[in-house]
């Protein structure tokens, strides 16, 4: 038996259609939210992601603002661009595309973002609100990839309440922040966060009802590590040359034969990536609705 597919492309398309309707309602009130991006350098992956965000904005009816800086931009250049976005009234939410070039103090840059315009939900104030407000409604942006993963699972009719979730990888955009969302009272999952210091990863993963693989290590989750019927969310991205075409392709953290034992699996590409993009738009629209209420 092969796992059922958690289709991120189709789910993101449905979410974008819902957002377009909400944006039209805001437009009727004279409110036009705008998503800003700050891209530093010419990494092809980051350029592709940023271009996709601007295409998404055009598709749903959001304004979009771009700040592009060369790879040799200084800390001061980047901080000046952040201040411009903070001050630009057309930009109601924005992201600093990560990673920033080596030598740049990323945390200093992220802390300069106006928390009210933090479309990524990664500003310390917004992460802090998630830590403090476990039982209350959160009226600040949520980290996009974790939010996208939970939406993807729940929109396929799978409840996370009481489930054992094992997260692999402790990066800030996924691993460290997803536990804050999964353990909120309205989700109610139990979370184990694993990382390079974990002594017996296979043993922990075998217990999981849901595996979130965000290590960025090709094929780290193998078939023998997965409980039959488990939900596998493949987040990590590695690139390799496809021997058949000679072109670069994305490969995930789950080995291909994991799909033979899992109950549900998110394809990679086509799973979490499109959901991350959709949630970025959702954060901007949520903030604009709160501001206009
Ligand atoms: N400030 C941020 N930087 C980065 C984040 C983030 O959430 N905030 N996440 C990633 C990049 N990212 C969004 O920025 C992102 C990654 C992947 C995709 C996507 O749609 N991927 C496609 C495949 C693309 C390919 O072939 O290369 C898919 O999964 O189908 C969208 C956004 C790091 N930086």
Describe the protein.
Belongs to the tetrahydrofolate dehydrogenase/cyclohydrolase family. Strand 2, helix 2 and strand 3 (63-69) form a beta-alpha-beta unit. It is built from nine helices and eleven strands. With 293 residues, the protein is of the alpha/beta class. The protein has a six-stranded parallel beta sheet. A three-stranded parallel beta sheet has the order 3-2-4, with helices on both faces. It folds into two domains: 28-120, Leucine Dehydrogenase, chain A, domain 1 (Rossmann fold), CATH 3.40.50.10860; 144-272, Rossmann fold (3-Layer(aba) Sandwich), CATH 3.40.50. The model has no long low-confidence stretch (mean pLDDT 96). Bound molecules: the ligand Nc1nc2c(c(=O)[nH]1)N[C@@H](CN(C=O)c1ccc(C(=O)N[C@@H](CCC(=O)O)C(=O)O)cc1)CN2. Residues 49, 95-98, 120, 144-145, 173, 250, 268-270, 273-274, 276-277 line the site of the ligand Nc1nc2c(c(=O)[nH]1)N[C@@H](CN(C=O)c1ccc(C(=O)N[C@@H](CCC(=O)O)C(=O)O)cc1)CN2.
């Amino acid at each position: 038996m092969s796992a059922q597919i958690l289709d991120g492309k189709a789910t993101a398309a449905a979410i974008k259609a819902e957002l377009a309707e909400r944006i039209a309602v805001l437009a009727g009130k004279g409110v036009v939210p705008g998503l800003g991006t700050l891209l530093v350098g010419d990494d092809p992956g980051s350029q592709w992601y940023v271009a996709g965000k601007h295409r998404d904005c055009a598709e749903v009816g959001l304004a979009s603002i771009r700040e592009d800086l060369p790879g040799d931009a200084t800390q001061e250049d980047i901080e000046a661009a952040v201040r411009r976005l903070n001050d630009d009234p057309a930009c109601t939410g924005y992201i600093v595309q990560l990673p920033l070039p080596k030598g740049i103090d990323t945390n200093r840059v992220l802390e300069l973002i106006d928390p009210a315009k933090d479309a990524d939900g990664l500003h310390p104030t917004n992460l802090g609100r998630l830590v403090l407000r476990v039982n209350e409604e959160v009226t600040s942006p949520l980290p996009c990839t974790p939010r996208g993963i939970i939406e993807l699972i729940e929109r396929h009719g799978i409840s996370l309440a009481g489930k054992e979730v094992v997260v692999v990888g402790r990066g800030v955009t996924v691993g460290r922040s997803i536990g804050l969302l999964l353990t909120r009272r309205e989700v109610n999952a139990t979370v184990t966060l694993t990382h390079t210091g974990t002594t017996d990863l296979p043993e922990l993963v075998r217990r999981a009802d849901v595996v979130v693989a965000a290590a960025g290590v090709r094929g780290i989750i193998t078939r023998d590590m997965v409980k039959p019927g488990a939900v596998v969310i493949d987040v990590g991205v590695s690139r390799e040359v496809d021997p058949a075409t000679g072109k670069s392709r994305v490969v995930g953290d789950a080995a291909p034969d994991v799909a033979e034992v899992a109950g549900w699996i998110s394809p990679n590409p086509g799973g979490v990536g499109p959901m991350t993009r959709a949630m970025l738009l959702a954060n901007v629209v949520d903030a604009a609705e709160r501001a206009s209420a």
